[in-house]
């Protein structure tokens, strides 16, 4: 498994939370998926208070600064969250696409 710093973990969870809330409905399957990610990343409930101090802008910046292998893994987590309830809402896709655009911005400039 990819090893993330605590700040990277917080950023991932912040974005996952944003995806989970994007359509205005938090589905039980999304909550289950979030619990799975917490366990996989080794995040404890006691870490939650520290995570609430990170805003969406900071989280996106941290994600954008990750090496490509970490970004790819985080992206797979984001897509899995969007798929967790069996329906990918356009607002969930929008959150994910904002990160992808930021990650590939230099590619878009070269075209």
Would you kindly provide a written description of the structure presented here, covering whatever features stand out?
- It is a single chain.
- By secondary structure, this protein is an all-alpha fold.
- The chain is built from 7 helices and no strands.
Topology readout:
Layout: H1 6-22, H2 28-41, H3 48-51, H4 56-65, H5 68-83, H6 90-103, H7 105-110
Helix pairs in contact: 1-2, 1-4, 1-5, 1-6, 2-5, 5-6
Structural class: mainly alpha
The pLDDT mean sits at 85
The helix content, as a percent range, equals over 70%
* Low-pLDDT regions: 103-111
SSE string, helices as H and strands as E: HHHHHHH
- Beta strands, count: 0
> Beta fraction of the residues?
under 5%
CATH architecture: Orthogonal Bundle
Tell me, briefly, the overall form: globular
As a whole number of angstroms, the C-alpha radius of gyration is 14 Å
Q: Kindly report how far apart the N and C termini lie.
A: 34 Å
CATH topology name: TerB-like
Number of domains: 1
Largest sheet composition: none
CATH homologous superfamily? TerB-like
Number of helices: 7
Output the CATH class name: Mainly Alpha
Short description:
Helix content is 73%, strand content 0%. The protein contains 7 helices and no strands. The longest helix is centred in the N-terminal third of the chain and has 17 residues, at 6-22.
């Amino acid at each position: 498994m990819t090893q993330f710093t605590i700040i990277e973990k917080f950023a991932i969870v912040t974005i996952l939370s944003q995806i989970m809330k994007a359509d205005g409905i938090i589905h039980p399957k999304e909550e289950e998926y979030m619990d799975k990610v917490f366990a996989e990343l080794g995040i404890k409930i006691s870490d939650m208070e520290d995570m609430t101090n990170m805003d969406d802008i900071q989280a996106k910046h941290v994600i954008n600064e990750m090496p490509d292998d970490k970004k790819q893994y985080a992206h797979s987590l984001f897509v899995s969250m969007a798929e967790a309830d069996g329906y990918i809402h356009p607002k969930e896709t929008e959150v994910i696409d904002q990160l992808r655009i930021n990650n590939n911005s230099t590619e878009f400039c070269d075209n």
